[in-house]
């Protein structure tokens, strides 16, 4: 008993408080209050979504947006309470035990009845708790659970990626969104009314638009801090093509450091508006936070500006004047302690200020630094969406102060996209008046010069084209197609002329083809292990039925006899043998002919995202694609004098097949792009896959700058043609659906409309507007379960606008639901043609192929879907399905 009493007597007040927290934290009362706090996080998240989805103009001064920001603030404050409590518990809890806050969070996450989209409310909290558990540096169940939860949240973030982008781009109720997201929004709107939510925020702050413009700021940091500043700076007075980067709410011990790393990589500076309590504590003397000391020091040492964002991040317009002054003065004390400079820059929390607060700010000798471009990173978990929104605003403003927050993971991930985009658009990152941070500094973000991986040592190609046959019918397009491929390989993909073996017409006899494939390419002194070999054949193909019921395909050389072709042609079996003899790590056969008996195989892990390029280029690949099956004929008469297959293949090489938009095109991507495009134009379905000997690799083409430009030209040309087509049909509401292929053949269509402001022209045509209206009607019918009526409406919509990817896909989807599978397949094919980067269509194509009894065609579409969407919540289930299909 005496020992117990002595222990309590020797404790100081802080230790006593910690012990009390420790014991209280394990009581059911804490668990109940913790669950209540977590419920509030979800509630504030839901309210924020409602307000943002109802906001017609996502202007930072919009009342809906401001109120949403308030609910976000309440959510963030609730999270801070939980984090603070967890930190206190970490100091007192036995290291062998799970932190009570973590335990309550994991239980709530697992047991609460939450919509998948609700779980995004915990993105920041989940990461903070994981960071705290990692800092304890002990093995615990909490680490495992938190890693699983964070991975789960990331999966849902990826799943709802497009829906978030729509909601935060004034398209929250647009067509094409996932059904479960639409149902989620509908549920929230039944629960909350946006006008009532606005009224919940009692004292609405006065938000003043720009009164004075930033000007005459000095050219270096010391002078800037001493210069006389305007009372309010919004950024509209900056020179054109200049921006200032500002980051609020930090510093954060993890994310601010990553922000600084990115700024250093791109060679630019920024302003960090710090919350005082994150800098340290103010008593008799200011004390800098030990946890954040290093990152605070980095801000100053690396040439950035540390500025004032209040001490507690409360809405200052609701506080007494004395507290307002305290909020400003305490933070300024900490800034001076950490930097040695007197700070004169202040940003009011939430941008909330009124005349009374402005008077206090002025009395303290501070200037209010506002913003005219809000990235809305606080509300948007999607980095790409944050970047897109920022550049959309810049397109209008041409200059200004950019608002970010250095406490969010999504901001860390979005910043490289933004800085890279600024560099490409020629923007300078400067001080608030548009001058460099230091003399002689351009301020234009530098693009990181990361060394590209060396994919291959040498590239070899055999290009064969046969128009003139001795015994078989002559062809018109084969030689021209082959020569176009040879030119493309040399001009766009770095194949040396001397490494491209071209064999045409009479020279393309069996002996010459066999010698090149079986001898020249098999020479290990010529073709090395780290090389690639590309083989293109355009000519006749044939298929022979075997006694065992299987088929065997043949390439027909120029001297093959009509009846005895099996004896003097090249069979698929021989092609496999030649492939095995070639020492190169990657071999890709492209056959503009139709036959079957390919003996295709599949590699199991083509879908993995992590280090994907390194994975597929380090392993052996033996791959093939043919123009069609045994009972199909190659369709000539495509655009630009090509067969339809070669035209589609060239389009793929121009960049359209780059479905993951990484600047590289793989044989797998080519197959999943070319096959549906060809099938949508001609009665042939290209077959593609891996040959015997493939070990999980993938043949890769790297897009050069010329190819990138060509891709942009194709996109622009497609828009021109779409506008032209709709304009031509303007007065004919009953016109049949036109095909883009027909437009490609028509040079006149390119001159119908100028190439400026195409998106607006497309939206403004009467047919397009009518199509959107009919599409909305169809969507309502679909949700009501009236599939037949919805199908009729969508049939009308695609006639009005056959170039809208959402409408085309929706029509395919309703046909799919009605089990009109062959029809659905065509519209899925056309969706790929219009939008090859539309991820869900590959899952739909896989499913429809299974329904049609073509499992071998379903596999590559499933694999492509998993590669583009690795965080799919049913990924394991789909992988198991792929393995099962492979066995059949």
Q: Tell me, what is the CATH class of the largest domain?
A: Alpha Beta
Give a quick account of the main beta sheet: strands, pairing sense, barrel closure. Answer: 6 strands, parallel
Assess the beta-strand content as a share of residues: 5-15%
Number of E-state strands: 22
Number of domains: 4
The oligomerization state is single chain
Shape: elongated
The total count of helices amounts to 35
Helix-residue proportion: 40-55%
The CATH level-2 architecture of the largest domain is identified as: 3-Layer(aba) Sandwich
Detail the poorly predicted runs.
1-28, 171-177, 207-226, 603-611, 728-763
Class derived from helix and strand content: alpha/beta
Question: Whole-number average pLDDT?
Answer: 80
What name does the CATH topology of the largest domain carry? Answer: Rossmann fold
Question: Radius of gyration in whole Å, from Cα?
Answer: 32 Å
Distance between the termini: 75 Å
Fold and architecture overview:
With 888 residues, this protein is an alpha/beta fold. It has four domains: 20-200, no CATH class; 221-429, Alpha-Beta Barrel (TIM Barrel), CATH 3.20.20.370; 459-703, Rossmann fold; 708-838, Tetratricopeptide repeat domain (Serine Threonine Protein Phosphatase 5, Tetratricopeptide repeat, Alpha Horseshoe), CATH 1.25.40. 51% of the residues lie in helices and 11% in strands. It contains 35 helices and 22 strands. The strands form six sheets. Strands 2, 3, 6, 9, 10 and 11 form a six-stranded parallel sheet that branches. The protein has a six-stranded mixed sheet with strand order 13-12-14-18-19-21, sandwiched between helices. Helix 19 (478-493) runs parallel beside helix 24 (644-656) and helix 33 runs antiparallel to helix 34. The model is unreliable at 1-28, 171-177, 207-226, 603-611 and 728-763 (pLDDT under 50).
